[in-house]
Amino acid sequence: QFLMANKLDTAMWISRLFTVYCSALFVLPLLGLHEAASFYQRALLANAVTSALRLHQRLPHFQLSRAFLAQALLEDSCHYLLYSLIFVNSYPVTMSIFPVLLFSLLHAATYTKKVLDARSSNSLPFLRNLLEKLNANQQNILKFIACNEIFLMPATVFMLFSGQGSLLQPFIYYRFLTLRYSSRRNPYCRTLFTELRIVVEHLIMKPSCPVFVRRLCLSSISFISRLAPTVA
Questions:
Q1: How far is CA 135 from each of CA 33, 102, 122, 200, rounded to the nearest angstrom?
Q2: What is the mean pLDDT of residues 170-194?
Q3: Where a domain ends, among 168, 195, 223?
Q4: pTM of this prediction exceeds 0.85
Q5: Spatial contact of 17 and 115, defined as CB atoms under 8 Å apart
């Protein structure tokens, strides 16, 4: 009754569980490397479906207008719909599957707890314990996801020069990264950029750091700071 009363949430729960399943079989290629590539695509497609459903839930009345597009781009679900479209037809990159896997796992765990509560307050204590441990580490998981989002930017450039990526991919991914940086719901991307800058500046200001390395890092920090979008 609980599942039928929340059909859209249940559909997203199933698609997230399927995303976790496909992502796990890509990261751990138990069925062979050839099958792993197909599971990579399935995971991203399932994530695209989940993101589209979530976006529909947030903005139910679609309008073909600039204002609606601007509003949609503020939603995290729209960001990860774009993310799935960027990588679904690209060369499989393990780093790119971790945000999809971990976000799906976190959201699926939250809804699984609701399903267990609807069934019985004491049902499946072992599973409940696992879900509580996952929830306790949520902040660390979100930071790890943000770290993946950031380091995928140079990875897309490397893929371009190695012949495994397209010319447009780094530019489209840069747009995705600016959306994540400006996210209203998830500040972890901004936080990680700040923390990485502090760490790098601390290291290069040590007397043992070569001058040319210090200048290169300061120039890179200045360039990246100019590319960062303005956050209200």
A1: 32, 12, 18, 30
A2: 91
A3: 168
A4: yes
A5: no
